[in-house]
Amino acid sequence: MDTARRIAGGKYECLLFDMDDTLYPLSSGLNLACRKNIIDYMLEYLHIEESKVAKMCLDLYKEYGTTMAGLKVLGYEFDNDHFHAYAHGRLPYEKLKPDPVLRNLLLSMPQRKIIFTNADQAHVVKVLNRLGLEDCFEGIICFETLNPPKQINHMDDCFSSNSQILCKPSVEAFEAAIRIANVDPKKTIFFDDSVRNVASGKAAGLHTVIVGRSDLVPSADHALNSIHNIKEALPEIWEIEEGIQQQMIQPKAAAMVHA
Questions:
Q1: What is the pLDDT of residue 164?
Q2: Which domain of life, per UniProt (predicted)?
Q3: Which of 56, 195, 242, 255 is the most buried (most CB within 10 A)?
């Protein structure tokens, strides 16, 4: 809150970052590995016909934002934590390496920085640790944030697993994230690799950046081939009074030394 007040005169006060395929490249292979795990889960635990499962997985992802959300809408019952543990628990996290370049960029930004992802918290923690970015963000808005466990009673227990999941790219998910983070969307930039997520972010009033491509897409204000290009594309992030910026960076650096 103090930081927000100190940069209140700047163009931006908060940066919202998607994580997967945004803070690290799609070429890491985690995306494909995760999709295979989800398909295997659908086969093993939901007993969906093998000839249909791959197309169904992709179609539900396209229509509902995540395959998991689509499965819930269709009435499949399963435990959310079990699904996430299966989809993410066997990912090749070793393919992610520390990214000191991105770390230095993030730490040099004077604004609040928050992760906004559809993934579960355990996955977020693993990825940030592998990238060496675990202390670069003020907070995480993830699956559990948007879909907290409901207080249920015996009357509605059997229906609880069918409840609709709130996730990107629904504009409602963005509005919830904006409320949770307590940000002014007009002073917030959203970074994501998904065209449809960028479109929903723009609809919610955010400044938007598409990551992982050089061409602008509808609703994107900027395009980044890589998150590493952020300073060249958005120098205005660093355009605050130099003395204030130095004042904010130095205590952070000192804190890291003692950590």
A1: 86
A2: Eukaryota
A3: 56
